[in-house]
Design brief:
alpha+beta; Immunoglobulin-like
């Protein structure tokens, strides 16, 4: 039993390392490199608006990005306090109404990640799940050209629509689509509840 807990713990650690290897983000500070793409990420009750001003494109609840590209997100709130978190980030970034919070990120390779707001947002739980879809820069440019001609990705919910709240949270308090790491941690927690919890 002890060896199986050790194995599951090692798998959890490996899954976290894999997620972190795909994603790199940091708050903008001194010496930040110039972004190749800027996206305005606006949090609403209870959905996300992603505006690409230089491309003339907007999307809702899906953030499309080119991989291996320095991207600056300009995080803002349209109403209440929100937060921005993507799988691979250690901590969520708080977003206060009336202020813009810049965040530089690089998705090192094509892939799909999940994120959410965990500030409550007025529905008393973790809400506002969204997807991050990264493709190589050539494919991203083709997508952007199509979206400019035939916009289809901006679909704000109807006013008063029920929030897309998560039914459960992961081990780290972040909800959304469950990662392998959070699934394995739940299994580990279930094992631990029958006996003593293993040291982390």
């Amino acid at each position: 039993m002890k060896s199986s807990r050790t194995l599951v713990g090692a798998m959890v650690g490996l899954a976290c390392v894999c997620a972190a290897a795909l994603f790199l983000a940091r708050a903008v500070g001194g010496g930040a490199t110039r972004p190749e793409l800027t996206v305005k990420a606006v949090a609403h009750q209870w959905w996300w608006e992603f505006d690409y001003p230089t491309l003339g494109i907007k999307t809702s609840n899906v953030l499309y990005l080119p991989s291996a590209t320095n991207v600056r997100l300009e995080l803002a709130s349209a109403d209440v306090i929100h937060s921005f978190w993507i799988l691979g980030m250690k901590d969520a970034v708080s977003i206060l109404p009336g202020k813009t919070r810049p965040l530089d990120l690089i998705l090192k390779s094509p892939g799909e990640l999940y994120g959410n707001c965990d500030s409550g947002c007025g529905c008393n739980t973790v809400c506002m799940r969204f997807r991050v879809l990264a493709s190589n820069p050539g494919n991203f440019d083709q997508w952007a050209a199509r979206e400019r001609l035939f916009p289809s990705e901006f679909k704000p919910p109807h006013p008063g629509a029920a929030p897309a709240c998560a039914l459960s949270t992961g081990h780290d308090g972040h909800a959304g689509y469950e990662s392998p790491a959070s699934h394995l941690q739940r299994v580990l927690d279930g094992d631990a509840s029958a006996g003593s919890r293993p040291a982390s």
